[in-house]
Design brief:
The chain is 26% helix and 37% strand. By secondary structure, the chain is α+β, with helices and mostly antiparallel strands. The longest helix is centred in the first third of the chain and has 15 residues.
Length: 225
């Protein structure tokens, strides 16, 4: 085998989508346009399956890959930031409201979606994707009195945060801060990360930066319709 493309099929922004979950060509065969040939083989087959768009992310400074994808008809749709948090300590700031954070076994997807609202969620972090891998995830909910006002879903071992959101009525009261601290305390290696925050979402970017997360990498989302 000289190269490969792995694709996942599902709904994204209301369209049946093929998401490129990984592409590789062995070093001795690079520069021979194998990636281009793989896609030329793949695209008609996906079209026959009714795929409406192709989706991928590419590291922002990977100019050769970007040129390849643009040649194949992909367009940059937005820039994304991946955050990592590597500090051995975590600042302690209490919420201005009395809150309780607890693990739950059964997710309330409709409520979580309401908290997320119209915020951009990348392919890997969509609730549909999280649900497929739920046995590897830990779910936390935040309560004020008897009301659920936020949630987080993350992997204890890797520290990867799949999703988190606070009800819009309860934001800017350090509740999200306390939720991140709870995940940090539970995580096996005291390292948290979150993938692909849209750079259009200034509120989310500021939230993670203010907590001390560092930028691990920036990517472009690219689509071919």
């Amino acid at each position: 085998m000289l190269g490969f493309i792995m694709n996942a099929i599902g709904q994204f922004d209301g369209k049946l989508t093929a998401y490129n979950g990984g592409t590789g060509v062995i070093p001795t065969q690079r520069g021979l346009k194998l990636g281009e040939r793989l896609y030329e083989f793949l695209m008609p087959a996906l079209a026959q399956k009714g795929i409406q768009q192709l989706l991928l992310e590419v590291i922002a400074d990977n100019a050769p890959a970007i040129r390849l994808y643009e040649k194949l008809g992909f367009e940059k749709t937005q820039k994304l930031t991946c955050f990592a948090y590597l500090s051995p300590t975590f600042p302690k700031e209490k919420s201005s409201l009395p809150i309780q954070i607890s693990k739950v076994e059964t997710p309330d997807w409709s409520k979580y979606q309401a908290f997320v609202g119209n915020a951009y969620v990348c392919w890997q972090n969509q609730l549909e994707a999280v649900a497929r891998d739920l046995n590897q995830e830990t779910i936390l909910e935040v309560y004020h009195k008897t009301e659920t006002i936020g949630f987080a879903i993350f992997n204890l071992q890797s520290g990867k945060i799949s999703q988190m959101a606070i009800s819009e009525a309860y934001r800017n009261q350090k509740i999200g801060h306390n939720l991140v601290r709870a995940m940090h305390a539970l995580s096996a290696h005291k390292r948290l990360s979150i993938l692909n925050i849209s750079q259009k979402d200034r509120q989310a970017l500021s939230f993670f930066q203010n907590l001390g997360f560092s930028v691990a990498v920036e990517q472009f989302e690219m689509r071919r319709v």
